[in-house]
Amino acid sequence: MADRSSDPEPGEEMAERLPAGPVTSWVLVDGDRRALTGVLLAGVFLALAAVGLAWPRSVRAVLGSGDPVGTLFQAMVTAIITGVTLVVSINQLVLSQELGAAGDQRDRMAGSLSFRSEAAGHIDEPVSPADPASFLRALLSTVGERAEQLEHGTAATAGDDAQREVASFASAVASEAERARDRLDGAEFGTFAVMGAALDFEYSAAIYGAKRLREADAVSFSAEGRRAMSELLDALELYGTAREHFKTLYFQWELIDLSRVILSAAVPALVTAVAMVLFFDPAGVPGATLGTENVLWVVTAATLVSVSPFLVFIAYILRIVTVAKRTLAIGPFLLRETE
Q1: pLDDT, tens digit (0-9, with 9 covering 90-100), for 174-232
Q2: Rounded to an integer, what distance in angstroms lies between the CA atom of residue 187 and that of residue 80?
Q3: For the chain, how are helix, strand and coil distributed in percent, rounded to 5?
Q4: DSSP secondary structure of 252-292
């Protein structure tokens, strides 16, 4: 029998596939993006404050003239306006996918109805669930049931090793489908909970493993076992199509949310930057706090407000590009090193 020790495991969680620990996982995918923006703002504040506290005597000399402050916030004004223009362009790109002639919309509707009808046939329901979490849960239930049928109904006539290999594969797929299904319970689309749970089930590895077992010379399936394998592959492929579709919708949803948050942050950021250019006078900020001129704290606070749209952009894009990189290929293609 061919050595399959290098085959990918079908059940790694997405966090386990990231190159570092839970902190990196929280920053890249799991953490609330607003909380991450707050962490980034705190990091920028602490960095600027540390520089000011390290060289307290130079703060008044550098900022007292007003030229560095004016130069900084003039650049901020330009960056904010450019950033808002970029956000509008992103919105236009996202919304352009929703626009089309009546014929195009009819084709989209027909494709969606056909897919839902096919899914309903596989999950043995007259109508497939409407919300994404319930839809994916139903498909994962079908995957789990068919994996169990494969585990209990396969006749591997080449020996105990082949029988154990098929049973081990089917058991792993069933248990991981159940785990992903449990995580989807109560999840609401628009949050990362749905996509996080859906991405944890590695359907690509499961499809690859199933096809490799089906074509292996060392494993001989009975008619019942071959039918069970075929039905499992159908369910996995249907789940893969659904997951990729909902991933596309999630990206659109997330980009629209990103645009709204950046636009909301851009107004106070622009007002603050313009006010610092036109009206700020370092001489009008006397005194010191914690041994550092108060002018540093005022400039630092204004800088935080001005850079907040950029930090929001970083927080959202980190998760989008991480998910996109981990799910670039559709079907039984594995773009990362596996054990």
Answers
A1: 889 999 888 888 778 877 888 888 888 888 888 888 888 877 765 666 677 778 888 89
A2: 35
A3: 75, 0, 25
A4: HHHHHHHHHHHHHHHHHHHHHHHHHHHT--GGG---EETTE
| 49 token code pair | 């404050």
Query: Left (φ > 0), alpha (ψ -120 to 50) or beta: where does 300 sit?
Result: alpha
Q: What is the dihedral of CA 73, 315, 256, 328, to 10 degrees?
A: 130
Which pLDDT tens digit goes with each residue over 306-336?
A: 999 999 999 999 999 888 888 776 766 666 5
Q: Which amino acid is at 131?
A: D
Tell me the two tokens of residue 271.
Answer: 């007002």
- Which contiguous run of DSSP H or E holds residue 293? strand 292-293
Query: Which residues have a Cβ under 8 Å from the Cβ of 229 and sit 6 or more positions away?
Result: 150, 154, 210, 213, 214, 221
Rounded Cα distance, 10 and 4, in Å: 13
With contact defined as beta carbons under 8 Å apart, do 299 and 49 qualify?
Answer: no
